[in-house]
Amino acid sequence: MPEAMPGSMPHESHEAHQSQPSQQPVLQLEQLTRVHGSGATEVHALRGVDLSVFPGELVAVMGPSGSGKSTLLTIAGGLDSPTSGRVVVEGTDITTVGRKELAALRRRSIGYVFQDYNLIPALTAAENVALPRELDGVSARKARVTAVAALEEMGLGQLADRFPDEMSGGQQQRVAIARALVGDRRLVLADEPTGALDSETGESVLALLRARCDAGAAGILVTHEPRFAAWADRVVFLRDGSVVDETLRSQADSLLSGQAAAQ
Amino acid sequence: MSIRHGLLALLEHGPRYGSQLRTEFESRTGATWPLNVGQVYTTLGRLERDGMVVQDGEDDAGHALYAITDAGRGELRSWFGRPVDRASPPRDELAIKLAMAVGAPGVDIRAVIQAQRHATLRAMQDYTRLKAQALVAVEGADGEKGRDDVAWLLVLEQLIFQTEAEARWLDHSESRLARLSAAAARRAGNATPAATPGPADSRGPAATDVTGAPAARTTTDHGTARTPSSARSARR
């Protein structure tokens, strides 16, 4: 293939969704280690991982199975504790806060998206999205209004009163993204969110995740699919619990503007 | 790449001059395969010689116009109807590089793979960003602009599929090499304590060299079989 530099292509747009490094990261992992077991059966799942995610940024984490991707995600979300290191979410080190405060912080700041959607089957889409707000003490009516608004903003308004089994996998996953980011939450941790979807549907889920990050959320996407990782601003490669490589931010924008200036 | 057929396809929409063909070719394909005007005129010259196009007067600005002939239309129809020739796959530098890296002295094939994966993912990120923009463009445009946008989207998606295939192949090659070197280490480990003569002894180290993975050597020294990941951990 001849050199197909995206920079030389027309149809460009200068729309940029740069994160501002001057901003506080939404999530900051510092020298994170996690050891499972001890002695002869000791497994080092993470070995000193540093990672920051800024508002507006989607970071993909790739690596072979057993490389520590899922451990990283569960620790980032406060579902598991690191053996050492810091996990700072919106300025708070969640490894040092009490159990109750951690639960509240998880509800208020962190959203999850799982491979199997994890919507509650007995609740409608709007009720599923409203649930974290309600658990946080917001009145049911108010939570519902917020939930419906969140669904509408993501083009999912027509799903509000449907139950999970009345929706396709792709629709459920989009609702799960809405739930992850309802209210003030702006950190979404997605573990193989496209794993159960066909590639077209998977792509539309990724497009929604991308759009939410463009709108200011911060996301981590664990995936083994390069095509989905390519939607991210940065791709981090994990191996044996260490970051072995990281693609820099995609430079498509700067390439294009550089090209435009040269023409 | 068939510039010939690309030009014939554009000329089917009506007579055009050289630099106009170049512009239209590039807006269809997003300038992924840039043409220079020289190539366009050389190709037009050959097409004219072969009776596929004829010169057809000038436009108001004095540009020489070319028009497709019936023979050219026939050739174009047959091109669309014919699958692309796969008889001789194009030379692929990456495949050649990995083939040469196997057992190459002083080359860490895993580092070669990782460096390429990095670059491949970067290219995919760029293409994907452009694709997201192209999708928006396709929804908004119609007519000639719409045709160009759709064509450009298809080309971009082809580039994404191609880079994806490359990334998958790199992942696959990496795990293939890890498995081979683990198997070689196991064989060497089994062979040494049993003092199997000649062939097995030489097979162990030879297999280690083939994959070029130092992990296999480590395990050979210890005479134990390890999984690739624990062998890697042991190196750290």
UniProtKB/TrEMBL annotation, chain A:
Q: Which GO terms describe its molecular function?
A: ATP binding
Q: Name one Pfam family in it.
A: ABC_tran
On whether Cytoplasm is a keyword of this UniProt record, the answer is: no
Q: Which branch of life, at top level? A: Bacteria
Task: Give the span(s) annotated as Disordered.
Answer: 1-24
**KW Disulfide bond (keyword) present:** no
Alphabetized InterPro entries for the sequence: AAA+_ATPase, ABC_transporter-like_ATP-bd, ABC_transporter-like_CS, ABC_transpr_LolD-like, MacB-like_ATP-bd, P-loop_NTPase
The record's listing under PROSITE patterns reads: ABC_TRANSPORTER_1, ABC_TRANSPORTER_2
Sorted alphabetically, the keyword list is: ATP-binding, Nucleotide-binding, Transport
The record's listing under SMART domains reads:
AAA
Residue ranges of every copy of the ABC transporter domain listed in the record: 27-260
Q: What is this protein called?
A: Macrolide ABC transporter ATP-binding protein
What is the originating organism of this protein? Streptomyces chryseus
